[in-house]
Amino acid sequence: MINTQQLLFVVILWSIWRARNACIWENKQANPVSTCLTASDLLQDYNWCCNALVSTPLSDHSMTWEKPPVDWLKCNVDGALFMNERKFGIRVCYRDSLGSFVQAHTMIFLSKSQPLNVKPPL
């Protein structure tokens, strides 16, 4: 298991790398405070997920990924809310009928709604 100092080092490096890429590829101004906050948020999210996995009992019905039919692609989608930054993001991953990776996309959007206005899924 990775220790806390190693994990902190990794998330800080990743945040710096991401801020650097935003400067180079998106002409965004680097903000050291924002970069550190991003690292802190990432570390908190990671710890929360680890704790949720340990404390949440597994159900009798486990979900498993199934390959799509021959000549089809399967598209898996995941989403996340970043309340502090007023952003939300989605990830999309495509796999073929062999289960092989085809393509993936990550998109981040600015939120125009207050979190209270967002309705939970049915």
Automatic annotation (TrEMBL):
Keywords, ordered alphabetically: Signal
UniProt cross-references to InterPro entries, sorted A to Z: RNase_H-like_EbsB-rel
Signal peptide location: 1-22
Record-given protein name: Ribonuclease H protein
